[in-house]
Amino acid sequence: MNVTEAIKTRISVRAFKPDPIPEALVREILDVARFAPSGGNLQPWKVIAVAGAERDAVVALARANLPGDEGERLVYPANLWEPYRTRRYKLGEDMYAKLEIPRENKGARLMHLAENFNFFGAPVGLFFVIEKAMGHGQWAHLGMFMQSVALTAIERGVQSCMQEAWARVRTPLAAHFSLRDEEMIYCGMALGYADTAKPVNALRSDRAEVDEIAEFRGF
Ligand SMILES: Cc1cc2nc3c(=O)[nH]c(=O)nc-3n(C[C@H](O)[C@H](O)[C@H](O)COP(=O)(O)O)c2cc1C
After folding, report:
1. Bridge-partner residues for 46, per DSSP?
2. Ligand 1 lined by 162 (C-beta under 6 Å)
């Protein structure tokens, strides 16, 4: 698999098979991803990987603490504006169309959202930790690391879904993992093998065209 294939085949998988991923494979993925770039080579990231009983413990922790709250670091800015508002809305509608859950069936939509807190059935969960005092640059660099994890995983046939949903239970998770006060969990990531029979995995999200996102000057 080349880089282009990896970028284009990585999608957010939202239904996994229970088949386990050995620790050695998760280690191998992180061993590659750690070569992601970061300003000043700070490498402002830490990962907590959970499987088996540890995975089940965080799933139970989330269930006991939901709905939770996002705290001060909102996942999206308040009153999202265009074109972002429409893009977000479209993703949700496209996803629920695949799941055949109409807008009126709020209960079923919430049930699907709640699956985030079961890693969509994936056998492995990753939590990405950053120091609270880090600036916007380091948050961006953490994102590069996360994409590197996802791309390295897909090269090995392992699918993923990044999950900022876990932000809702940041505080109990931090206590569970005995994080230092200076640290926080930014995001989760489900890792596993896609259940390709599940309609939600047929979703392919839209992207803006190059001319919408780029300007070319001086060519
Ligand atoms: C940092 C980050 C957090 C995300 N959090 C969630 C999440 O909590 N739950 C979810 O279902 N998808 C989540 N996503 C997936 C996005 O919805 C998805 O990346 C986007 O719609 C593009 O689709 P694709 O990943 O299939 O290409 C997240 C993506 C990113 C980059």
Report:
1. 129
2. yes
